[in-house]
Amino acid sequence: MSYGDAMRARTRSEERRAEIVRAALEVIAERGYRGASLAAVAERVGLTQQGLLHHFPTKEGLLVAVLQERDRWDAMPAGRLRLDLLASLVEYNAMRPAIIQTFSALLGESVTEDHPARTYFTERYTGVREGMAEVLRAEYGDRLPSGLTPERAAPLLVAVLDGLQYQWLLDPESVDMPSAFRDFLTLLGENRPD
């Protein structure tokens, strides 16, 4: 096999993996992780289950690929995250309900001891809380207007972000997620010194 043939084969394999990850995201959004089968994902992309296993040998490996892909979509350059960019991320998320639904379903399922994404989400939230504390510290210093430290306020900020997503998924006509998050930012900055 020539170098060019090898590169084309690698590119096709990467494209197929991306297609499988997108299909897995859809199937998980529809059925949840436990209800999603490799056979259903394979069928959606026109593969046999054995063909899918060539790219992702385990269901857990596919799940991790789905979660990593979702995180790549939301990644912001280090040191560039600000509260106003978080508001933009919320607006962006409001345009992609299937991805938010998948993330929320997996997050909800991951609280059980034996769920394969439990470690992923536990580690992810440790990092997210640390990142939110940095954002709050950059915006307010060592104390928010309420007197809370950024470390004490960070879990609340994360809870608002995730809680709004759940409410919006359940009743998108009644919950304007971007507006509600901007309202929360107003509350954070209430009585903020100039």
TrEMBL record:
Gene Ontology molecular-function annotations: DNA-binding transcription factor activity; transcription cis-regulatory region binding
Gene3D superfamilies referenced in this protein's UniProt entry, alphabetically: Tetracycline Repressor, domain 2 (1.10.357.10)
Keywords tagged on the record: DNA-binding, Repressor, Transcription, Transcription regulation
Location of the DNA-binding region in this protein: 37-56
Superkingdom of origin organism: Bacteria
Domain HTH tetR-type, first and last residues per copy: 14-74
Keyword Thylakoid: no
Protein name: Putative HTH-type transcriptional regulator BetI
Taxon lineage: Bacteria, Bacillati, Actinomycetota, Actinomycetes, Kitasatosporales
